[in-house]
Specification:
11 strands
Protein backbone atom coordinates (compact mmCIF):
# COMPACT_ATOMS: atom_id res chain seq x y z
CA UNK A 1 0.00 0.00 0.00
CA UNK A 2 2.04 2.91 -1.23
CA UNK A 3 1.20 6.41 -0.11
CA UNK A 4 2.04 9.85 -1.37
CA UNK A 5 5.26 11.18 0.12
CA UNK A 6 3.42 14.34 1.08
CA UNK A 7 1.11 12.46 3.45
CA UNK A 8 2.25 11.09 6.80
CA UNK A 9 1.81 7.35 7.19
CA UNK A 10 0.46 5.55 10.24
CA UNK A 11 1.45 2.11 11.49
CA UNK A 12 -1.01 -0.56 12.57
CA UNK A 13 0.80 -3.15 14.70
CA UNK A 14 -1.37 -6.25 15.08
CA UNK A 15 -1.01 -8.68 17.97
CA UNK A 16 -2.00 -12.02 16.46
CA UNK A 17 -0.85 -10.73 13.07
CA UNK A 18 -1.23 -14.04 11.23
CA UNK A 19 -4.66 -14.91 12.58
CA UNK A 20 -7.91 -14.84 10.63
CA UNK A 21 -8.95 -11.36 11.77
CA UNK A 22 -5.56 -9.79 11.09
CA UNK A 23 -5.28 -11.44 7.67
CA UNK A 24 -8.74 -10.16 6.76
CA UNK A 25 -7.79 -6.67 7.99
CA UNK A 26 -4.68 -6.47 5.81
CA UNK A 27 -6.39 -8.07 2.79
CA UNK A 28 -9.46 -5.87 3.14
CA UNK A 29 -7.50 -2.65 3.54
CA UNK A 30 -5.51 -3.40 0.39
CA UNK A 31 -8.61 -4.40 -1.58
CA UNK A 32 -10.60 -1.31 -0.58
CA UNK A 33 -7.62 0.99 -1.19
CA UNK A 34 -7.26 -0.46 -4.69
CA UNK A 35 -10.95 0.00 -5.43
CA UNK A 36 -11.56 -3.75 -5.71
CA UNK A 37 -14.35 -3.71 -3.11
CA UNK A 38 -16.44 -1.04 -1.36
CA UNK A 39 -15.75 -0.32 2.35
CA UNK A 40 -18.83 -2.21 3.55
CA UNK A 41 -19.00 -2.28 7.35
CA UNK A 42 -16.56 0.59 7.85
CA UNK A 43 -18.37 3.28 9.82
CA UNK A 44 -15.45 5.69 9.30
CA UNK A 45 -16.11 5.65 5.57
CA UNK A 46 -19.63 7.07 6.00
CA UNK A 47 -20.38 10.80 5.50
CA UNK A 48 -20.42 11.60 9.24
CA UNK A 49 -16.64 11.02 9.37
CA UNK A 50 -15.59 12.85 6.22
CA UNK A 51 -14.14 15.85 8.06
CA UNK A 52 -12.54 13.98 10.96
CA UNK A 53 -8.99 14.09 9.62
CA UNK A 54 -8.56 10.32 9.77
CA UNK A 55 -5.57 8.71 8.05
CA UNK A 56 -6.41 7.31 4.63
CA UNK A 57 -6.57 3.54 4.26
CA UNK A 58 -3.79 3.76 1.69
CA UNK A 59 -1.56 5.42 4.32
CA UNK A 60 -1.75 2.53 6.79
CA UNK A 61 1.34 0.35 7.15
CA UNK A 62 0.96 -3.07 8.78
CA UNK A 63 3.18 -5.18 10.99
CA UNK A 64 2.79 -7.17 14.16
CA UNK A 65 3.64 -10.02 16.49
CA UNK A 66 2.56 -13.65 16.26
CA UNK A 67 3.72 -17.03 17.49
CA UNK A 68 2.62 -18.68 14.21
CA UNK A 69 4.85 -18.92 11.14
CA UNK A 70 2.27 -19.37 8.34
CA UNK A 71 2.88 -16.49 5.88
CA UNK A 72 0.00 -14.07 5.31
CA UNK A 73 -0.40 -14.93 1.59
CA UNK A 74 -0.79 -18.60 2.54
CA UNK A 75 -3.20 -17.72 5.34
CA UNK A 76 -5.25 -15.63 2.92
CA UNK A 77 -5.43 -18.60 0.54
CA UNK A 78 -6.84 -20.75 3.35
CA UNK A 79 -9.43 -18.09 4.21
CA UNK A 80 -10.42 -17.91 0.55
CA UNK A 81 -10.89 -21.68 0.46
CA UNK A 82 -13.08 -21.38 3.56
CA UNK A 83 -15.29 -18.74 1.98
CA UNK A 84 -14.12 -15.95 4.29
CA UNK A 85 -12.39 -13.97 1.54
CA UNK A 86 -13.95 -13.63 -1.93
CA UNK A 87 -12.23 -15.47 -4.82
CA UNK A 88 -9.40 -13.59 -6.44
CA UNK A 89 -8.87 -10.91 -3.82
CA UNK A 90 -5.96 -12.60 -2.03
CA UNK A 91 -4.20 -13.04 -5.38
CA UNK A 92 -4.87 -9.44 -6.37
CA UNK A 93 -3.28 -8.08 -3.19
CA UNK A 94 -0.60 -10.76 -2.77
CA UNK A 95 2.18 -8.14 -2.93
CA UNK A 96 0.63 -6.12 -0.08
CA UNK A 97 0.20 -9.27 2.00
CA UNK A 98 3.85 -10.20 1.43
CA UNK A 99 5.01 -6.73 2.46
CA UNK A 100 2.99 -6.91 5.69
CA UNK A 101 4.21 -10.45 6.39
CA UNK A 102 7.83 -9.27 6.30
CA UNK A 103 6.97 -6.92 9.18
CA UNK A 104 5.69 -9.67 11.51
CA UNK A 105 8.02 -10.53 14.39
CA UNK A 106 8.02 -13.58 16.70
CA UNK A 107 5.66 -13.17 19.63
CA UNK A 108 5.65 -14.83 23.01
CA UNK A 109 6.03 -16.13 25.52
CA UNK A 110 6.25 -19.52 23.82
CA UNK A 111 6.89 -22.89 25.49
CA UNK A 112 10.49 -23.01 26.65
CA UNK A 113 10.94 -19.23 26.46
CA UNK A 114 13.29 -18.34 29.31
CA UNK A 115 13.02 -14.55 28.99
CA UNK A 116 11.66 -12.64 31.95
CA UNK A 117 8.55 -10.48 31.67
CA UNK A 118 10.75 -7.37 31.59
CA UNK A 119 12.87 -8.84 28.79
CA UNK A 120 9.78 -9.75 26.75
CA UNK A 121 8.32 -6.25 27.11
CA UNK A 122 11.66 -4.72 26.08
CA UNK A 123 11.91 -7.01 23.05
CA UNK A 124 8.33 -6.34 21.92
CA UNK A 125 8.72 -2.58 22.37
CA UNK A 126 11.96 -2.70 20.40
CA UNK A 127 10.22 -4.44 17.50
CA UNK A 128 7.52 -1.75 17.42
CA UNK A 129 10.01 1.14 17.62
CA UNK A 130 12.09 -0.39 14.85
CA UNK A 131 8.97 -0.69 12.66
CA UNK A 132 8.06 2.96 13.23
CA UNK A 133 11.62 4.14 12.61
CA UNK A 134 12.31 2.15 9.43
CA UNK A 135 9.06 3.24 7.79
CA UNK A 136 9.35 6.83 9.03
CA UNK A 137 5.83 6.62 10.43
CA UNK A 138 4.12 9.56 12.06
CA UNK A 139 2.78 7.23 14.77
CA UNK A 140 1.52 3.67 15.27
CA UNK A 141 -1.46 2.02 16.92
CA UNK A 142 -1.07 -1.40 18.55
CA UNK A 143 -4.23 -3.51 18.15
CA UNK A 144 -4.74 -6.81 19.95
CA UNK A 145 -6.65 -9.27 17.73
CA UNK A 146 -5.15 -12.45 19.23
CA UNK A 147 -7.17 -15.36 20.61
CA UNK A 148 -8.90 -14.91 23.97
CA UNK A 149 -6.83 -15.67 27.07
CA UNK A 150 -8.13 -17.07 30.35
CA UNK A 151 -8.30 -14.41 33.06
CA UNK A 152 -5.23 -14.23 35.30
CA UNK A 153 -5.61 -15.28 38.93
CA UNK A 154 -4.35 -13.25 41.86
CA UNK A 155 -1.94 -10.33 42.20
CA UNK A 156 1.13 -12.59 42.05
CA UNK A 157 0.17 -14.49 38.90
CA UNK A 158 2.39 -14.01 35.84
CA UNK A 159 1.36 -11.15 33.59
CA UNK A 160 -0.76 -12.44 30.70
CA UNK A 161 0.72 -12.10 27.22
CA UNK A 162 -1.89 -9.48 26.29
CA UNK A 163 -0.66 -7.27 29.13
CA UNK A 164 2.97 -7.72 28.12
CA UNK A 165 2.05 -6.45 24.65
CA UNK A 166 0.04 -3.56 26.10
CA UNK A 167 3.00 -2.50 28.23
CA UNK A 168 5.27 -2.78 25.20
CA UNK A 169 2.92 -0.51 23.25
CA UNK A 170 3.10 2.13 25.97
CA UNK A 171 6.87 1.87 26.19
CA UNK A 172 7.10 2.35 22.41
CA UNK A 173 4.94 5.48 22.69
CA UNK A 174 1.98 3.97 20.83
CA UNK A 175 -1.75 4.18 21.41
CA UNK A 176 -3.44 0.85 22.06
CA UNK A 177 -6.69 -0.95 21.21
CA UNK A 178 -7.78 -4.22 22.79
CA UNK A 179 -10.27 -5.90 20.44
CA UNK A 180 -10.30 -9.07 22.59
CA UNK A 181 -11.73 -9.98 26.03
CA UNK A 182 -8.16 -10.59 27.30
CA UNK A 183 -6.89 -8.35 30.10
CA UNK A 184 -4.44 -6.23 28.12
CA UNK A 185 -4.59 -2.69 29.50
CA UNK A 186 -7.23 -3.73 32.07
CA UNK A 187 -4.58 -5.42 34.21
CA UNK A 188 -3.77 -3.16 37.18
CA UNK A 189 -0.08 -3.02 36.26
CA UNK A 190 -0.83 -1.84 32.73
CA UNK A 191 -3.62 0.48 33.87
CA UNK A 192 -1.18 2.34 36.11
CA UNK A 193 1.36 2.64 33.30
CA UNK A 194 -1.33 3.84 30.89
CA UNK A 195 -2.33 6.62 33.26
CA UNK A 196 1.26 7.75 33.57
CA UNK A 197 1.92 7.55 29.83
CA UNK A 198 -0.72 10.03 28.67
CA UNK A 199 -1.42 7.83 25.64
CA UNK A 200 -4.95 7.12 24.36
CA UNK A 201 -6.31 3.59 24.55
CA UNK A 202 -9.57 1.80 23.80
CA UNK A 203 -11.21 -1.57 24.33
CA UNK A 204 -12.21 -4.17 25.15
CA UNK A 205 -13.75 -7.07 23.20
CA UNK A 206 -15.11 -6.06 19.83
CA UNK A 207 -18.89 -6.04 19.51
CA UNK A 208 -19.51 -7.89 16.24
CA UNK A 209 -22.61 -10.09 16.46
CA UNK A 210 -24.65 -11.39 19.37
CA UNK A 211 -23.77 -8.53 21.70
CA UNK A 212 -24.39 -6.00 18.93
CA UNK A 213 -28.00 -7.25 18.85
CA UNK A 214 -28.19 -7.15 22.64
CA UNK A 215 -27.08 -3.50 22.62
CA UNK A 216 -30.07 -2.76 20.37
CA UNK A 217 -32.69 -5.05 21.92
CA UNK A 218 -31.86 -4.29 25.58
CA UNK A 219 -32.75 -0.58 25.25
CA UNK A 220 -35.84 -1.51 23.23
CA UNK A 221 -37.26 -3.60 26.07
CA UNK A 222 -36.38 -0.93 28.65
CA UNK A 223 -37.85 1.93 26.61
CA UNK A 224 -41.07 0.03 25.95
CA UNK A 225 -41.38 -0.88 29.66
CA UNK A 226 -41.39 -4.60 28.90
CA UNK A 227 -40.05 -6.79 31.71
CA UNK A 228 -37.38 -9.26 30.60
CA UNK A 229 -37.58 -12.39 32.75
CA UNK A 230 -34.84 -14.48 31.13
CA UNK A 231 -32.24 -14.08 28.40
CA UNK A 232 -30.28 -17.15 27.35
CA UNK A 233 -27.92 -17.64 24.45
CA UNK A 234 -25.72 -20.11 22.64
CA UNK A 235 -22.70 -19.52 20.42
CA UNK A 236 -21.42 -22.14 17.99
CA UNK A 237 -18.06 -21.28 16.43
CA UNK A 238 -14.87 -22.83 15.15
CA UNK A 239 -11.45 -21.54 14.20
CA UNK A 240 -8.82 -20.36 16.65
CA UNK A 241 -11.35 -18.44 18.73
CA UNK A 242 -13.56 -21.50 19.07
CA UNK A 243 -10.62 -23.56 20.27
CA UNK A 244 -9.55 -20.85 22.73
CA UNK A 245 -13.06 -20.42 24.11
CA UNK A 246 -13.36 -24.14 24.75
CA UNK A 247 -11.39 -23.26 27.91
CA UNK A 248 -14.06 -22.38 30.52
CA UNK A 249 -11.90 -19.59 31.94
CA UNK A 250 -11.56 -17.96 28.51
CA UNK A 251 -15.29 -18.37 27.87
CA UNK A 252 -16.04 -16.70 31.21
CA UNK A 253 -13.92 -13.70 30.20
CA UNK A 254 -15.83 -13.49 26.91
CA UNK A 255 -19.27 -13.74 28.53
CA UNK A 256 -18.57 -11.01 31.08
CA UNK A 257 -18.90 -8.36 28.37
CA UNK A 258 -22.14 -9.87 27.05
CA UNK A 259 -23.66 -9.72 30.55
CA UNK A 260 -22.49 -6.14 31.08
CA UNK A 261 -24.53 -4.94 28.10
CA UNK A 262 -27.70 -6.45 29.55
CA UNK A 263 -27.00 -5.15 33.05
CA UNK A 264 -26.41 -1.62 31.77
CA UNK A 265 -29.35 -1.45 29.36
CA UNK A 266 -31.95 -3.36 31.40
CA UNK A 267 -30.87 -2.22 34.86
CA UNK A 268 -30.33 -5.80 36.02
CA UNK A 269 -29.13 -9.13 34.67
CA UNK A 270 -32.04 -11.46 33.86
CA UNK A 271 -31.93 -15.21 34.40
CA UNK A 272 -30.05 -17.22 31.82
CA UNK A 273 -26.54 -17.83 30.57
CA UNK A 274 -24.57 -17.78 27.34
CA UNK A 275 -23.03 -21.08 26.31
CA UNK A 276 -20.09 -21.19 23.90
CA UNK A 277 -19.44 -24.41 21.98
CA UNK A 278 -16.38 -25.10 19.86
CA UNK A 279 -17.42 -26.64 16.52
CA UNK A 280 -14.20 -26.94 14.47
CA UNK A 281 -16.10 -27.77 11.28
CA UNK A 282 -17.54 -24.23 11.26
CA UNK A 283 -14.11 -22.63 10.77
CA UNK A 284 -14.44 -18.84 10.87
CA UNK A 285 -18.23 -18.95 10.75
CA UNK A 286 -20.41 -18.67 13.83
CA UNK A 287 -24.04 -19.02 14.82
CA UNK A 288 -25.43 -17.11 17.79
CA UNK A 289 -28.91 -17.87 19.14
CA UNK A 290 -30.77 -15.87 21.79
CA UNK A 291 -33.99 -16.83 23.62
CA UNK A 292 -35.64 -13.89 25.43
CA UNK A 293 -38.61 -14.38 27.73
CA UNK A 294 -40.47 -11.18 28.62
CA UNK A 295 -43.75 -9.98 30.11
CA UNK A 296 -46.19 -7.71 28.34
CA UNK A 297 -49.34 -5.89 29.50
CA UNK A 298 -51.24 -7.69 32.29
CA UNK A 299 -48.35 -10.12 32.64
CA UNK A 300 -48.85 -11.76 29.25
CA UNK A 301 -45.80 -13.95 28.69
CA UNK A 302 -44.03 -13.66 25.35
CA UNK A 303 -40.87 -14.88 23.64
CA UNK A 304 -38.41 -13.31 21.20
CA UNK A 305 -35.79 -15.50 19.50
CA UNK A 306 -32.95 -14.29 17.30
CA UNK A 307 -30.43 -16.17 15.16
CA UNK A 308 -27.26 -14.49 13.94
CA UNK A 309 -25.09 -16.33 11.43
CA UNK A 310 -21.95 -14.65 10.19
CA UNK A 311 -18.24 -14.75 9.54
CA UNK A 312 -16.37 -13.45 12.55
CA UNK A 313 -13.33 -12.21 10.63
CA UNK A 314 -15.42 -10.30 8.08
CA UNK A 315 -17.46 -8.75 10.90
CA UNK A 316 -14.37 -7.76 12.90
CA UNK A 317 -12.00 -6.50 10.19
CA UNK A 318 -13.81 -3.25 9.26
CA UNK A 319 -14.16 -2.39 12.95
CA UNK A 320 -10.43 -2.91 13.51
CA UNK A 321 -9.68 -0.54 10.62
CA UNK A 322 -12.12 2.00 12.06
CA UNK A 323 -10.55 1.79 15.49
CA UNK A 324 -6.99 2.07 14.22
CA UNK A 325 -7.85 5.22 12.26
CA UNK A 326 -9.87 6.83 15.07
CA UNK A 327 -7.28 6.06 17.75
CA UNK A 328 -4.41 7.32 15.60
CA UNK A 329 -6.28 10.57 14.99
CA UNK A 330 -7.10 10.88 18.70
CA UNK A 331 -3.38 10.55 19.47
CA UNK A 332 -2.58 13.17 16.84
CA UNK A 333 -5.00 15.70 18.36
CA UNK A 334 -3.56 15.26 21.85
CA UNK A 335 -6.23 13.09 23.45
CA UNK A 336 -5.09 10.83 26.27
CA UNK A 337 -6.41 8.08 28.51
CA UNK A 338 -9.41 5.84 27.88
CA UNK A 339 -11.41 6.75 24.78
CA UNK A 340 -14.89 6.16 26.15
CA UNK A 341 -16.50 7.56 23.00
CA UNK A 342 -15.37 4.43 21.14
CA UNK A 343 -17.69 2.28 23.27
CA UNK A 344 -19.82 1.82 20.12
CA UNK A 345 -17.31 -0.85 19.07
CA UNK A 346 -16.96 -2.81 22.33
CA UNK A 347 -18.78 -5.17 24.65
CA UNK A 348 -16.86 -3.96 27.70
CA UNK A 349 -15.68 -0.42 26.85
CA UNK A 350 -13.19 1.60 28.85
CA UNK A 351 -14.12 4.97 30.32
CA UNK A 352 -17.58 6.40 30.77
CA UNK A 353 -20.38 6.22 28.26
CA UNK A 354 -23.80 4.77 27.39
CA UNK A 355 -24.42 1.08 26.65
CA UNK A 356 -27.28 1.32 24.14
CA UNK A 357 -26.07 1.22 20.55
CA UNK A 358 -28.04 4.27 19.42
CA UNK A 359 -26.59 6.47 22.17
CA UNK A 360 -23.14 5.03 21.56
CA UNK A 361 -23.35 5.93 17.89
CA UNK A 362 -24.35 9.51 18.75
CA UNK A 363 -21.35 9.76 21.10
CA UNK A 364 -19.09 8.39 18.36
CA UNK A 365 -20.29 10.97 15.83
CA UNK A 366 -19.71 13.78 18.36
CA UNK A 367 -16.23 12.40 18.94
CA UNK A 368 -15.57 12.33 15.19
CA UNK A 369 -16.66 15.97 14.94
CA UNK A 370 -14.25 16.94 17.71
CA UNK A 371 -11.42 15.15 15.91
CA UNK A 372 -12.15 17.19 12.81
CA UNK A 373 -11.99 20.37 14.83
CA UNK A 374 -8.67 19.29 16.29
CA UNK A 375 -9.89 19.68 19.85
CA UNK A 376 -7.58 18.52 22.60
CA UNK A 377 -8.52 16.96 25.88
CA UNK A 378 -10.60 13.96 26.86
CA UNK A 379 -14.17 13.27 25.74
Amino acid sequence: MSASLSRPRVGVWLIGARGSVATTVVTGCAAVSAGLHPPTGMVTETPAFTGSGLPALSDLVFGGHDTLDCPLPKRAEALTAGGVLPPGVATAVAAELAVADREIRPGGPTPGDTRSEAELITAFAGDIRDFVHRHELERAVVVNVASTEPASHGPHAPLPASTLYALAALRAGCSYVNFTPSEGMHHPVAAREAERSGLPHAGRDGKTGQTLLRAVLGPMFAQRALTVRAWSGTNLLGGGDGAALADPAAAAAKNAGKERVLADTLGSVPEGEVHIDDVPALGDWKTAWDHIAFDGFLGTRMILQTIWQGCDSALAAPLVLDLARLTARAHETGLSGPLGALGFYFKDPVGEGPSGLGEQYEALVRFALSLGEGKEGRR
